[in-house]
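Fill-in record for Random slug protein 5.
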Amino acid sequence: MEEELNDGVKANGAPQSSPEMENNEVEQSKVGIMRAVVEAQDPSAKEVDNLMIRRFLRARDLDIEKASNLFLKYLSWRRTFIPNGSISTSEIPNELTHNKLFMQGLDKNGRPIVVCFGGRHKQNNLEEFKRFVVYGLDKICSRMPEGQEKFLCIGDLKGWGYSNSDIRGYLAALSVLQDCYPERLGKLLIVHVPYIFMTAWKMVYPFIDSKTKKKIIFVENKKLKSTLLNDIDESQLPDTYGGQLTLVPIQDA
């Protein structure tokens, strides 16, 4: 049996390998290949870092062709949908009045905590709502600690009723999240779920990709705080759930 030494080197001098190391090497290699592919087709791809390219690759199970197609569509979409480079609050005035999206604190993995109150959402102009989604995601991403790529979201449906049901809006938001911000969502905890919400959920569910489905958890009311505390220290938990931090509106975060 070969004796293993420190620093991942075996006694015979060969580097110690592991599935994780091999996977990282495969990823790094594919990131380089994908970068060459997308830069050849869209020079603006040179402006993005390798982490973004890696997120698109992971979203497509390291399939370079599929990931490249998704990424090139994203670059084209961003130029068209966000010609000024960012969404300003003046472009989403009605959405901001709903007071439905907040940020505060970090979970145990260092991911920013986002809280969305679905019961405050009202059907509005679809284009403005999509701008609001992009505004929120850009703000969340800009507030991530160094080395962090994902966020945790609490989707609070307290008070949700049919007047809040907006299938077109839900599908639009889902498309933006999955196609333009892949691998940004770390976990979605859906709380205070009314039974009538499941009618809308059944309509949206088929459009959720398999990777996103694995990140969604419906939380029982009687286990609400204990479930949240599995991911969030009480010192970082929003006060509305019995924690210590006051929620901050997304525009002020």
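KEY FINDING: The domain at 89-252 is CATH 3.40.525.10 (Phosphatidylinositol Transfer Protein Sec14p).
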